[in-house]
Structure formats: C-alpha cells, structure tokens
Amino acid sequence: MRRRAAASLIAAAVIAAGCGREAERRSGGGRPAAGVAADAGKGAAATTGDLWFPDVSVLGERVRVLADPALRGRGGGTADEAAAADKIAAWFRAAGLEPGGDGGYQQPFTRADGKPSQNVIGVLAAADPKAGHVVIGAHYDHLGVLGGDIHPGADDNASGVVGLVAIAEALARAGQRPAVTVVVVAFGSEEDGLLGSAAYVADPTLPLAQARLMVNLDMIGRAAFLTGKDHEMARAYVAADAIGALASPRAFDLVAAVKNAGKPEGRPVVAASDFGPFEDAIRSQVELRGDHASFSRAGVRYLWLSTSMHDDYHQPTDTPDKIDPATIAVVGRIVVRVVRGLPAKR
Fold this sequence. Notes:
Blueprint lengths: L5 H9 L6 H6 L6 H5 L18 H11 L12 H17 L2 E2 L6 E5 L5 E9 L8 E7 L4 E3 L2 E3 L2 H19 L8 E7 L7 H8 L8 E7 L14 H4 L7 E5 L4 H11 L6 E3 L7 H8 L5 H6 L4 E5 L18 H16 L6
Parallel strand pairs: 4-7, 4-8, 8-11, 9-10
Antiparallel strand pairs: 1-3, 2-3, 3-7, 5-6, 9-11
Helix pairs in contact: 1-10, 4-6, 4-12, 5-6, 6-12, 9-12
C-alpha cells in the first residue's frame, strides 16, 4: 500500500487491502499429516457464554505448522502448497467433515501457467437439504520463496485457515450444528489471482444458486488492528482492537448480524457502511481483492472479515510469533454465531 487520501486511509482501516498479487497489480515445523490431525478438538474455551471453540493453544500450534519453514511459504502451484493441502485435509477429516472434493477432500485444478494446484473442501451437512448452504473459505497459499527468502505467511493467510478449521470443529460440535449446510473451503493459488476460488465457483460442491452466503477469512491473526506505519491517520478513526468487516453492497442484515455476533467478544466490528459517504471509496479499493470476489461475481452474497494491514504484509517477517491466537478465536466465534443465526428457510 502507498500513502493515499483520507478516504483511502479509512478504507484500509475498515478491511485489509487484500492478499492476491494479481489483484494488487490490477488495483494500482512442517509435520506429517497424521501428527497434525491428532490435535483436532483438543481443549475448549468457554470465555463467551456456553459456546465451545478450540483452545487458543491449538490455534497457535496450527499456525506454526502452516508457517513452518519446511513448507517454504506455500507458493501457489508448488509441491509445498500441495503438502500444506494434505495437512489441511487431515484437519478437515479429524473435524468430522465429509469430503467435498473430487473423490476426496481435494479439488485439483490446473492453473493458466500449467502448474497444478488444489482446493481443500469439507462439508457439514444439515438435516434439511432445502435449507441451503453457506461457504466459508480462506486461502492457504502464500508467496513461497522470493529473492531467496521464505515468506511464511503466518497472518496471510495461515491465520485464516486455522480459523476456518476451528469454525468447522465448533459447528460440528453437538448442540452447535447450524440449520444450514456448511461447505468449508481452503483455496489454493489465491496470491496469483484468486485462482482457487475461481476454480471452485466454476465447479462448486453444491449449486451456487443454493448458496445463501460466502464468508471469507483473510488475515485475522493480529491483536492490534491496522498497525502499518502508512496508516496513522486511519488509526484515529478505528478502535485499536477492532475487527474489520466488508459485506455485499446493501446487505444491511449481514452487517447487523456480524456486529451483533461480535458483542459477546467485547471487541468492535467495523464495517464499510459505518463510514457513510466514504463507503463507495472503500469498496472501490478493496471489494475485488479477496476470494469473496469470485463468489460476488457469481451472485453470491459475501461477508469478509480481517484484522487488516501491518508492515509485515507480504514480507519474510510475517511469522508465527506475531500472531495472536486469541484474536483468531474471536473472529472464529463471530462466524459461528453468524452461521448458526441463519434460519432454516430463506
């Protein structure tokens, strides 16, 4: 990001500027899968009423697994990305999700450059298939190795994937299952132009006409909101512990739902629509810069959550020690409440 006018700075405060390298141009220790799967479901946090959610120690460990140097930054179309996909599939299996890919948890696709990539898909089915479904997604790839430096992508976007898995575990928990079917997707090759989400939209697990909402989790792991040095002006407008939200245009019900879901956490949820006449400026800069954009183009409403920009964005310094697992848990519980709050019928 570069220094911009006040409206642009507020835009950055509301939500992260996005992680896809192609979208950016358009707009201006690794462990065996069986080992990581074994931690699924350990511990529970009961700090917000009776809502069960995985313990923060589990979340922190999973971030370390995905951002371990052994995975060399999970570059799109590489064997490292494929190894990360195997780990995520093991987590989905341990969470009790049904496979939603092509004969298993993975949905392979071929990129325009001929390289193989894959999405990882799990399904939590509702009792009534007529209730529709929600897609919850987060990209798991990052920049890989650039200039000889591993870019671990702990916040971008190991944090979102860890939140995704935890949300699936919470929704699969007895007494917490939602009325709608939930399709959980870890997208590959986002950084090279939202390729994984485009591949999913082209060949969805369930018809997109039945999708009631897409929730995108991207960079949800920093305790302090908007810490980048270029955003001092924006920080004057937004609480330091805020959670950023961007919903589909005029989706006032989604904005109300996510704000209400955040109240038990004691942290404010800041939405683009909070800024009145600046909302259009915000959307023009961030709306198409995440995997939710692929769903929006297909007519699916979306909700994008993020803890926004920092100086480690797309740098080798985006490391696990800077992640706050408690913030991942806050965002995850917000999503659980939003999804559970959807009625069984449209």
